[in-house]
Amino acid sequence: MTPMLQHLMARVQANGPMTIAEYMTEALLHPTFGYYTTRDPLGAAGDFTTAPEISQMFGEMIGLSLAQSWLDQGAPTPFTLAEPGPGRGTLMADILRATRAVPGFHDAMQLCLVEASPTLRASQQELLGTSPTWLHDLEQLPDQPLFLIANEFFDALPIHQFLRGATGWRERLVGLRDNALTIGLGPEQPRADLDHRLTDTVEGNIVETCPAAPALIQGIGGRIQAHGGAALIIDYGDWRSNGDTLQALRNHTPVDPLSNPGSADLTAHVDFEALANAAPCAHAPMTTQGMFLERLGITQRAQTLAQNLSGDALQNHISAHRRLTHPEEMGNLFKVLALFPKGTLPPPGCDT
Ligand code: SAH
């Protein structure tokens, strides 16, 4: 038995069943045994691959969208360029390279990364070379224009799950049975925060909430509304959460979310409706990653890069373009929500 499993079982024995949110927080971020705290989970040798790890074009398109938005807002100086959950730093490295030629952008920029994992902070330092400021949470961002990218960050935030009953909702809890972790149910209760789900669910349906997400959006959107800026939130999910989307990945293969705490990645679909409703600034209509990247010119960029490639490198490049944009790959599953100040234009790539 792993130390993490021992720790979780002892916790249930002492305190009773825990929420799925508590389980996710422990499994992902426990200071000694947590999944993110102890390893670099990305890439072929890890458990999952993200868009920036597939191709440099992803970060290039995002860099251009954010830099154009900065220009459209009058090139405010100084401004914060922020990324929560930067992984290895690959996305930020591509953004910085793509924006180097934008006059004044780098001089005006203060780079802030929010990273919970010491292992990943070290990778970011190595890849970025420059000295970003690392923050513990987004609350610490300076009060100035904020241009922010979050890719596959919100899906790692802890969720709660509720099963609809005859007269209320029962929270799904992680407990113990036969000396193993198992899912059980809390008492049935009415929940005002789920009233809006009474019309689109029936008894037996599961819905998810992620209280940390709207709280973060209020902080990000409040800064953008007060000081200017824009945020691009990119993740897998949809306009409204539906059903049980908790997923664990190990070695690029789905596993039981309770079976490998601390050694499998845990994520859930992002409910973009909840994010949009929490924003104290304007937001563009949610769009798909495929449409967003196409509007920003990823195909032209792919053709330019292809001119210098041949053989396997060319085939990999073609399949990377397809993975990022094709509706049957990441193109439709991943969505983009852009935040920007009321009365200004959304960042390029979004619907207006
Ligand atoms: N954005 C990167 C990495 C995505 S993996 C990419 O696209 O490749 C998720 C990232 O979020 C990791 O860097 C992880 O350490 C970080 N993370 C997860 N939960 C976090 C939390 N609560 N606070 C800060 N960072 C967190």
Give the SSE layout.
Elements: H1 3-15, E1 18-19, H2 20-29, H3 35-38, H4 51-54, H5 56-72, E2 79-84, H6 90-99, H7 105-108, E3 109-114, H8 118-128, E4 133-135, E5 146-151, E6 160-164, E7 169-177, E8 180-189, E9 206-209, H9 212-227, E10 229-238, E11 247-250, E12 253-255, E13 265-267, E14 270-271, H10 272-278, E15 282-283, E16 287-288, H11 289-295, H12 298-306, H13 311-325, H14 327-333, E17 334-340
Parallel strand pairs: 2-3, 2-5, 3-4, 5-10, 10-14
Antiparallel strand pairs: 1-7, 6-7, 6-9, 7-8, 10-17, 11-12, 11-13, 15-17, 16-17
S-adenosyl-L-homocysteine binds next to helix 2 and helix 4.
Helix content: 25-40%
Question: Looking at CATH, which topology would you report?
Answer: Rossmann fold
Shape: globular
Number of domains: 1
CATH class: Alpha Beta
CATH architecture: 3-Layer(aba) Sandwich
The residue-averaged pLDDT reads 96
Seen as an oligomer or otherwise, the chain set is single chain
How would you classify the helix and strand content by structural class? alpha/beta
Count of DSSP strands: 17
**Biggest β-sheet strands, sense, barrel:** 9 strands, mixed
Radius of gyration: 21 Å
Given the structure, what is the number of helices? 14
Small-molecule binders here are: S-adenosyl-L-homocysteine
Spans where pLDDT lies below 50 across 5 or more residues:
none
- Roughly what fraction of the amino acids lie in strands? 15-25%
Distance between the termini: 53 Å
